Amino acid sequence: MASGSRKLKIGIIGFGPFAQFLAKTMIKQGHILTATSRSDHSQLCSQLNITFFRDIEAFLDAGNDIILICTSILSFSQVLRSIPFDHLKKPTLIAEVLSVKEYPRDLLLQVLPLEIDILCAHPMFGPGSGKDGWKGLTFVFDKVRITNEDTCSCFLHIFENEGCRMVEMSCEEHDKQAARSQFITHTVGRVLSEMEIQSTSLDTKGFQTLVNLKENTMKDSFDLYCGLFVHNRFAKQELKNLELALETVRQKLHHKSSDTL
């Protein structure tokens, strides 16, 4: 087969909703999947034709071409450090799909043996936004340490084949841009939730957009939001910028109000 088209053996660590979402498309494309997780997903995996391992060493012995880590941001370090990578039988590509990038990159470089390849990736979509297909949705990746270009190319082809907009970007640049876009979006959505905004009989299109933002944001866990803040060094400054901007608007309103009295 030509590069980028061969079928892969992909092992997934952490088989929560996002991993399940990705796995269904990988299976549709004909790739062979195995999975392991703290929770017992053996019944679901059996339905999806995925081999589920409760034992991490048996999982590592399965001869996967790629191991995809799909844990939460907050549990990533603990999970990564608990994996006995010396059980891998061959050089393997380790990929992760966290919503922050510098943090997992630095940990992977610290923990993994030199012969293991590293790909940091972020599908900028999920089960909600990607339920009708991935065409036109953004997939960001950084080839942190790649010696086997063929395996890496085959993995990226999974997303190319679905029509994703492929963006190669450094982990640092990803976090810088994501702090201004993704983190701020989540922050505004959570602020609106704290205000308990609801649809009214007088909704404008703009207000409907805000209600939708609140509802979509609250579908994600607070742990995810916390991870976006704690493990993206640019997020703290963006939060300060938002606070300063709100104060500036408040001052302008008060200044204008005093002028009209």
TrEMBL record:
Residues 232-259 form a coiled coil. Gene3D superfamilies: NAD(P)-binding Rossmann-like Domain. InterPro entries: NAD(P)-bd_dom_sf, PDH_N, Prephen_DH, TYRAAT1/2, TYRAAT2_C. The keyword Oxidoreductase applies. One of its GO terms (biological process) is tyrosine biosynthetic process. Pfam families: PDH_N, TYRAAT1_C. GO terms for molecular function: arogenate dehydrogenase (NADP+) activity; NAD+ binding; prephenate dehydrogenase (NAD+) activity; prephenate dehydrogenase (NADP+) activity. Residues 8-261 form the Prephenate/arogenate dehydrogenase domain. The keyword RNA-binding does not apply. Keywords: Coiled coil, Oxidoreductase. This is Prephenate/arogenate dehydrogenase domain-containing protein. It comes from Kingdonia uniflora. The lineage of its organism: Eukaryota, Viridiplantae, Streptophyta, Embryophyta, Tracheophyta.
